Structure formats: structure tokens, C-alpha cells
Amino acid sequence: VSTQSTGVLCLIGIRVHSINWVVLGHAYAFSTTFIGSFSHAAELLKRKNFMVIQNGLPSVDSFFALSGFLVAYLLLKQLAKRGGLSPSQWIAFYFHRYVRLTTPYLVAMLIEGWLYRFVMTGPRAQQMTETSMGSHAMCKKYWYTSLLYVNNLVPWKMMAGCLGQGWYLANDMQFFIIAPIFITLQYWRPLIGLIGTVGAMICSAITAAVITAHYHLGPTSGTDTNQDEFWLLYDKPWIRITPYLVGILGGWFYWKWGEKISSGVKSLPEWLKVMCAAPIWAVTAAVQYGVVFGLYDDIQAVQQHHTNPSEADSVSYQSLARIAWALSLTVQILLCQCGLGGFINSILSWSGWQILSRLTYSVFLLHIGLLTILDGQLRHTLFLNPDFEFSVLYLGILAMSYLSAGVLYLAVEQPVGNLEGLTYRKDR
User: Fold this and answer.
1) pTM of the complete model beyond 0.85
2) Dihedral through CA 396, CA 19, CA 212, CA 208, nearest 10?
3) Which of 248, 230, 148 is nearest to 194 (CA)?
4) Could you give the CA distance from residue 34 to residue 20 in angstroms, rounded to a whole number?
5) Which of 14, 48, 194, 300 has the fewest C-beta atoms under 10 angstroms from its C-beta?
């Protein structure tokens, strides 16, 4: 969805910074196998600012929240305009999404699952081909799960499909399929719809808490010695749906009250706008800081003293952290859209982000493959000390990801979107 066409311009910057954060985390994760000095790695893990990378999982929850927000806002506008959607319009609603996502996804699967192994010639090329996420063997056996967007469920205890990051796309498509249930209820029966959405969030949080307690899991994968955490919690839709539901609630709120609040805010003097917005920004920023950095002591205890976090910490974080992050981010989006974003909204809505924002999906599809090639080609170790060495590596990967994404976007994503959009718009 073009964020510019929706008028929610702050999402442009949020989307770009979130994908940059995702690439940063993956770049560090892939480079750990090439660290030449474990003492340097140990020093990195002691730094509190390293939590941005070590506990960068909220970057993915940001995308879930953004997707839920946009789907709810745009669908509610369509329902209000037409008084409902016909069966053919509902078919077009899903067909549009499937085609727009799947076509570049297929090309990326072909590139990473089949072609990358022919261009790696380094000493670790074979190892990276066979053991990296989205290996050729897994792709050959379970390619169909990606096309059906069930690769987070089939097979149950193994990452399937041709792209390791495909688990996110599976979740996002599954959420998209069921989202109209909540959104149409919010339109036709607002109270029932809101109660149902909040109730689903509560059920998801309780499920995460029960699984965490039953299997004695840690608060995140960074503190968890149980290798089953990924298939029990990390990639399962009933656990990851909470940020998406928060986004749906935010989209409904903005559709229902956004214009009225914006009109009221315009009449306020600047000093009063600051007085109203500053405390909310402070609280939401504090919540986000707590989600990212709040586990620092627990992670240090695990890494230095091999002391597991308490069950209370693990259960509360696994069940509430995603909701807290998505809720704070959604409130910040609403502040920006209602005229209370100040300079933050100016930064996030800067038109210069627009081009990069269009490339974020292709960056997501291609960056792990580029990291795989780099690691397969390396003939020396990485010391990561000082940070300059990794900064060069990260910025290089990021630049190559955007350049490659530009090619995929121009050659596949945009042409397919234009062709499909001609048919889709006839049904709108």
C-alpha cells in the first residue's frame, strides 16, 4: 500500500527506519560466525546500547502494527464509501494482496533458493548454501508452503520454504485474511468489534504466557537456551498477531476520530499543543525504551553467570512486550496524524523517504540472500573492534540491498502492480 496515497505520511519514515533496523540485526547475526576475537564479542554484549541489535525484535512488530493500521483504515474508508463490499470486491480485495506480494516473493525465492549457490565461491560457500536460512534442500522440498503462506505452520517444528524471513510473510498474509472479520464488525457493530479485537489480543497474550511458563522459555530468543522457542512462539500467528490487532484498533480510531481531533488541534495555540503532546510522547518513548532495553540485566545474567531470568519476567515480557511496543507506536502515529507530532512528524514525513519506502518490501526479500553471499565469500575474520569495521559492512549491505531492491521493484514489483491495479481499480 502506498502510504502517500493514504495520507498517513509519517508511516513513510517509520517503514524505512524499521527495515534498516531489521537489516542491522540480521547483519550482526550473520557476522557472528566470522568474529576473530571472542573477547571483542563479549565486550559488545556488555554494552547496553547493543540491546538495539541484540533485542531488535520490535522492528518486526512495527511492520505488523503498520500493516494492521493501514488495512483497517483503508477498508473502513471503502466500507463507509460503499456501504459494504460485494462478493466480487471481496475477491478483488484478497486477489490484489496475493498477487502484489507473491510475484516479487517468487522471484526472490528463485534468486535465493536456486541461483545464489552458483555465485558463491568462497571457502564457506557450501556451508552457507546448505545451512543458511532458506537452504536449497528446504526450498526444494517445501516450496509450496511459501506460495500458500503456511510455511510458519508446515512443517510444524522446522523453518520451511525458500526464504528464512518468509515466516513473517506467512503471518502477515494470515492476519490479512482474517482482518476483515474484526474490521467489518467495527464498522457495523463497533462495540462488538472492539470487544472482539481486544478479546483476541487478550487470548493471544494468555496463550504466550501459558506456553512460556509450561516450556520454561525465556523472555526472548536472546535469553533462551530452549531451541524450541522459535516454533513454539516466534513464528506462530496466534502469538504474533497482537501488534497487528493493535494496529487495527489504531486504524479504526483514526478513521472514526482522526479528522475531528485534527480540526480541534488546529485551533490550539502552539504552546498548548506542546503541553498536550509532550507527556504522551514521553510516556510512549519510555515504554519503547523499556521494551528494548528492559531485559539488559536479564541478558547479562544469562551470558555472564548462566542465570536464567525469572519465570515472572519471562511470562510478562512474552505476553505483554509486543502489545506495549505496538500500542506506543500506534499512539505516536496518531499524534503525528492529528497535528501533535511536531518536528518528529516532519522528520518521518519527509518526502525524501518516499523512494526508499517503496523499496522496503524488496529490501526485506533480498537482504538475507546478500548477507549469505557475503558470508560465503569472506576469506578473513571480522574483529568488530572498533565499530568502524562493522559499520562499513552494515552500510555496504544496506546500500546493496536498496540497489538490488530497486532492480526488483522496477523489473517486477511495479510492473505487476500496475497491470494488476488496472483490473483491481475496475472493481473498486
Assistant:
1) yes
2) -170
3) 248
4) 22
5) 48
